[in-house]
Amino acid sequence: MLQRIQSLYWLGAIICLSFLNFGLDVFRFETKDAVYEFDFYSVVKLVNNKAVNEKTIWIYPACILFTVFIIITIFSYKRLKGQYKMSNRIKFALTFMFFMLTVNAYAGIFVKNTNAVVLGPGYFLFAIAVIFTYLASWGVKKDKKLLDSVDRIR
127 Cβ partners below 8 Å, 6+ apart? Predict the structure, then answer.
């Protein structure tokens, strides 16, 4: 189970997603009037470094769910076909979520007359988690292909 390389990749993705749950900034909009901070818990509007408005968002529970699904995928190593399907689902869901974060980050340039969009460490950790899930899915596919070729020889 842990001797397989994809388990180490998934462990890396779990570590990245766990750090995101500590409240790292994903990105921030800086406008003339206020600053909007976006983290995995909420979007906060800051005026003169004081929180004026806060809106809770859904990303925090989604990161916890992804972490749980990755752990389930790691421990389903005996059912390689099921592990491959679950790995692909996690990969596509995380990619979609990363795409939505990117769209939200750069949509602020057009919507709110922002001066700058500053990407935080949470954005890059999420990108690294997506890369780790792609590598893990590639490892599962490689194992599946190897076992299929061994079964064909028998």
Answer: 98
Distance CA 120, CA 67 (A): 21
Q: What would you measure as the largest C-alpha separation in the chain, in angstroms?
A: 71
Q: Of 74, 92, 94, 93, which is closest to residue 139 (Cα–Cα)?
A: 74
- State how beta strands 25-30 and 116-119 pair: antiparallel
Which fold does the domain 5-144 belong to in CATH?
Answer: Butyryl-CoA Dehydrogenase, subunit A; domain 3 (1.20.140)
Conformational region of residue 113, where left means phi above 0, alpha means psi within -120 to 50, and beta covers everything else: left
Q: Which residues contact 152 (CB under 8 A, 6 or more apart)?
A: none
pTM exceeds 0.85 for this model: no
Contact 139, 4 (CB under 8 A): yes
In whole angstroms, give the CA distance from residue 69 to residue 37. Answer: 28
Tally the C-alpha atoms within 13 A of residue 19's C-alpha that lie toward its C-beta.
17
Q: Where are the domains of the chain?
A: 5-144
Across the 154 residues of the chain, what is the mean pLDDT of every consecutive 10-residue run? 77 90 81 79 76 71 88 86 90 91 77 75 91 92 83 65
